[in-house]
Write a structure and sequence with these properties.
Length: about 325
């Protein structure tokens, strides 16, 4: 129900109902309409400008999620780069020092870095943050490739060192915990059978007949035969120019062509050939030349034990062969 307005009439001295009529009435309606339209437009643009459409809201949310993921990627890249630097430090200053190898030069590590970045700049030039991160990942990948190759080389070096080490005649050929079975020094001595001074090019270990004899390094049996002087003798060829010989054995435990490991039983102590008592005559050759086997025994001995071995080995006891 429309609200009724009243106006004071001076002639009748009364308040009487009053209504706009004609143009005034239409002007009032026009004013209301204009004000309503203005408010509606203002509300619409305010909504569009400040709130945005549903699509824009979704895009904004996706954009935010992408920024978060990008930040995570950047953090991971930084962490991976720091960890890689630690590996490079260990590579250059630990492993290569231990393996007696030169550290990689910076130029070797940087070779090829940035090669594909130029191409990417054409595509990513408008997005410097993306380009920087992309470059960081590219550099990381390159350094990682270089480091993987370097570690492969280190692994090969380690295997080579291990093979060289396992090939060295580094243990005693018979169990000799008390170190008192070493009988004669390396060098010239009066031969008990030929009764004259002859160079003794090995070490003798006195032991009961049948005592096991061990290969002193990894290698391959190249001879296992009976000699008039050596008796039953085994020759083992090791890598890296080493050869060992085990003479006067009572029996063989290997044959020619066998591949043996350090510590493997290859025969048993005896007194065959030119020998006056059960013992092992043991020789080491390097590049075809005889060397004193005592110099290779450090591996299973303490310094004190090694000194005792040298002292015993220097005694001129009664020769056995
Ligand atoms: Zn001997």
């Amino acid at each position: 129900m429309a609200r009724i307005q009243y106006q004071y009439n001076a002639e009748t001295c009364r308040y009487e109902p009053w209504r706009l009529k004609g143009k005034a009435r239409w002007r009032r309606y026009a004013t209301y309409f204009s004000a309503s339209l203005t408010l509606a437009l203002a509300a619409y643009y305010g909504y569009v400008l400040n709130v945005g459409s549903i699509d824009e809201i979704i895009l904004q949310e996706r954009n935010h999620a992408l920024k978060v993921q990008w930040q995570v990627l950047e953090n991971r890249t930084r962490k991976a780069t720091a960890e890689l630097q630690q590996l490079i430090e260990k590579d250059d200053h630990n492993y290569r020092v231990i393996l007696d190898a030169e550290p990689l030069q910076p130029s070797e590590r940087q070779a090829g870095v940035g090669g594909s970045i130029k191409l990417d700049k054409e595509v990513l030039g408008d997005f410097p943050v993306v380009l920087n991160s992309y470059s960081a990942v590219q550099n990381l990948k390159h350094q990682l490739d270089v480091e993987v190759q370097s570690y492969d080389k280190l692994k090969a070096m380690v295997n080579e060192k291990l093979e060289a080490w396992s090939s060295r005649p580094a243990i005693q050929p018979i169990s000799n915990k008390q170190l008192d079975q070493l009988h004669l020094t390396y060098g010239s001595r009066f031969h008990p059978i030929f009764h004259k001074y002859i160079d003794h090019k090995g070490l003798d270990f006195s032991a009961p007949s049948g005592t096991p004899i061990y290969a002193t390094g990894d290698g391959k049996v190249i001879m296992a035969y009976t000699s008039s002087s050596y008796g039953n003798v085994v020759y083992i060829n090791h890598h890296y120019n080493f050869e060992t010989r085990y003479a006067h054995m009572s029996a063989f435990a290997v044959k020619v062509g066998d591949v043996v490991k350090r510590g493997q039983v290859i025969g048993y102590v005896g007194s065959t050939g030119n020998s006056v008592a059960a013992h092992l005559h043991y020789e080491v050759l390097f590049k075809g030349e005889h060397v004193n086997p005592i110099n290779f025994f450090q591996r299973d001995l303490s310094n004190k034990e090694y000194q005792k071995l040298i002292e015993i080995g220097s005694r001129q006891d009664r020769p056995l062969d």
